[in-house]
Design goal:
The complex is a heterodimer of chains A (304) and B (281). Chain A has a two-stranded antiparallel ribbon with strand order 1-2. Chain A is 74% helix and 2% strand. In chain A, strand 1 (51-53) and strand 2 (58-60) form a beta hairpin. With 304 residues, chain A is mostly helical. Chain A is flat, with a radius of gyration of 25 Å. By secondary structure, chain B is mainly alpha-helical. Chain B has 2 domains: 6-60, no CATH class; 71-270, MetI-like fold, CATH 1.10.3720.10. Helix content of chain B is 75%, strand content 0%. Chain B has helices spanning 6-38, 60-68, 71-102, 108-120, 127-136, 143-167, 171-179, 184-213, 216-221, 230-240, 245-271, 274-280. Chain B is flat, with a radius of gyration of 24 Å. The two termini of chain B are 24 Å apart. In chain B, 43% of the residues are buried. The chains are: A mainly alpha (304), B mainly alpha (281).
């Protein structure tokens, strides 16, 4: 009798162990790759932020690089620029992307062709996106300044990239162009997984299209929206290539973000230490932001 | 729809097509401009800069790109790297996303946090350490080194994406299959995977294009002509000569072709809407 009970308990333990192991089995390839290729170099990089590098040697300076950061006016300006660059790029990408996803979810003639065409910007390499948009904004060879002039946005057809007051809009527009397909594709895929009975039921209950959108579509899209918005924010905030190609942070530092500033510090001044310290600051800010969004998503899922 | 007049429906249709036309025009403008510049003879480049189409056309830029440069090789390298990265990432991220979606286990929040962490730091920060590590194991100047790095950097996002697609598939479906005697893997293959195919298609597309246009690591790790990817190769146009716009635009138009084909192929996974159909049926 006891032997029998022992057998049962043994089997139970074995099953428990298997259940405990199973998720880790599925996760292990991803985790191994991420640890060896990203986490280990990240830790080494954080170590760099406590050192000062010159041409042939590096020395430990403790928090010296962080003290330099506090009194750096360029960094202060870059923080503010990063905020506006991220907020405008994200808001425009998201709303235009959501609009596109909902449009593509409706049947119309040439729907497949249109879908292929509007997703194309995603495939264009980023630095090429930057160069092409810089050309479009150039009054000598591009059409946009003449369009802006004709509709009264500009007194003279000049490039918006040369004026500190408007320069940031150049990379923002290029970024929005590049990023709309991201939101459109993910939100369209999420929209397609909403069971159509829900809309049929809503229509029978006399819900208007707007009510169907707010009561059915939005709640079902909310988890996907939270994840994509969060990841996209982080990408945009750390994304230097586009600005670097179009304005290199100028004119007069008006498009200098933290990410481009890190580029400059890492490659032009060769001090990997200061660049790493700024990167750590950005990392801390973004992790704080991500934690807030995750909490909000959890609350959303609980309510749903 | 009942209760709507003919005029209302007509206005809705016109609005729909107008909105679609705006999106298409915005998406195509820079691509159109790239094509236009690629066929403009050098002497007309500035004098006819704002014309919609040049008065004379030339294909000389394409001919010199294909014959006098290493671009055909860059294309092949980029295709190899992007396809390998997309395949590996999608497979690995599907398993990881499935684990995060279907299991409750200790350390799950920690795993999500670590994945998120890899998305939050600027790439420049890991370039010096990665360069050193790759040098020590002999993977600099190698396409395999690039595949490993691109894979690592895309896994987190792809995992979150796959997790949200798995979250969208009702648990009852696989539980029913498992009660009917399927193992979890069989249920995964025969019930869950077909339902998440649109999601996997989207994941493949994202990773492929991300690998296709990556520049920074390619630039740092690849030195020899024979290993250069497309984006690195394009930069040699800017670096070596002033900027040969015509050739660069011709090269980029050529580089857009594989991605266009890829998107056309993936369209059907995005469009079929398998999920809605299966849950209903």
């Amino acid at each position: 009798m006891t032997a029998f009970a022992d057998d049962i308990a043994g089997l139970q333990r074995q099953a428990d162990r298997r259940r405990w192991l199973e998720p880790w089995l599925y996760l292990s390839p991803a985790l191994v790759i991420i640890f060896t290729v990203l986490i280990v170099p990240l830790i080494i990089g954080i170590g760099y932020s406590f050192r000062k590098f010159s041409a042939f040697r590096s020395e430990f300076v403790g928090l010296g690089q962080y003290r330099t950061m506090l009194g750096d006016p360029v960094l202060h300006g870059a923080l503010i620029n990063t905020f506006w660059w991220t907020v405008w790029s994200l808001a425009l990408q998201f709303f235009l992307g959501l609009g596109l996803a909902l449009l593509l979810n409706r049947p119309f003639h040439g729907q497949k062709l249109v879908q292929g065409l509007v997703f194309l910007p995603w495939a264009v390499p980023i630095f090429l996106t930057g160069l092409t948009w810089a050309w479009l904004f150039n009054p000598l060879i591009g059409p946009l300044p003449h369009v802006f002039h004709a509709i009264g946005l500009q007194a003279e057809p000049v490039t918006i990239l040369a004026d500190p007051a408007t320069a940031m809009w150049g990379p923002i527009i290029a970024n929005v162009w590049f990023g709309i397909p991201f939101f459109a594709i993910t939100l369209l895929a999420a929209r397609k997984s909403i069971p159509s009975e829900l809309y049929e039921a809503a229509a029978i209950d006399g819900a208007s299209p707007w009510q169907q959108f707010t009561k059915v579509t939005l709640p079902f899209l909310a988890p996907t929206i939270a994840i994509t918005v969060m990841l996209r924010t982080v990408w945009i905030a750390t994304f230097a290539d586009l600005i670097y190609v179009m304005t290199a942070g100028g004119p007069a530092g008006s498009t200098n973000t933290i990410a481009t500033y890190i580029y400059v510090s890492a490659f032009k001044s060769l001090d990997k230490g200061y660049a790493s310290a700024i990167a750590v600051l950005l990392l801390v800010l973004l992790i704080a932001y991500a934690l807030i969004v995750i909490q909000m998503r959890r609350a959303l899922l609980r309510d749903a | 729809m009942p209760g709507q007049s003919f005029l209302q429906r007509l206005a809705g249709q016109i609005g729909l097509y107008a909105a679609v036309a705006c999106y298409v025009a915005f998406a195509l403008l820079p691509i159109y401009w790239t094509i236009k510049i690629s066929v403009t003879p050098p002497d007309l480049l500035y004098s006819e800069g704002i014309r919609l189409w040049p008065s004379r056309m030339t294909l000389a830029n394409y001919a010199s790109v294909l014959e006098a440069t290493d671009f055909p090789r860059y294309f092949l390298n980029s295709i190899l790297v992007s396809v390998a990265t997309a395949a590996i990432v999608t497979a690995v991220a599907s398993f990881a996303g499935y684990a995060l979606s279907r299991f409750r286990f200790r350390g799950k929040a920690m795993v999500s946090l670590v994945l998120l962490l890899t998305q939050t730091f600027p790439l420049v920060m890991v370039i010096p350490p990665i360069y050193r590590i790759m040098g020590q194991i002999g993977l600099t100047d190698s396409l395999y080194g690039l595949i490993i790095i691109y894979t690592a950097f895309n896994i987190a996002f792809a995992t979150f994406l796959m997790q949200s697609f798995f979250d969208g598939v009702p648990k009852d479906l696989e539980e029913a299959a498992m009660i009917d005697g399927c193992t979890r893997l069989m249920a995964l293959r025969s019930v869950i995977l077909p339902l998440t195919l649109p999601g996997m298609g989207a994941t493949v597309a994202f990773v492929f294009t991300a690998a296709w246009s990556e520049l920074l690591f390619g630039l740092m790790l690849i030195n020899s002509e024979s290993q250069k990817t497309f984006s690195v190769g394009l930069l040699t146009f800017i670096g070596k000569f002033a900027v040969d716009w015509g050739q660069m635009m011709a090269a980029s138009v050529l580089a857009l072709i594989p991605v266009c084909l890829f998107f056309l192929f993936l369209q059907r996974y995005l469009v079929t809407g398998l999920t809605a159909g299966a849950v209903k049926g």
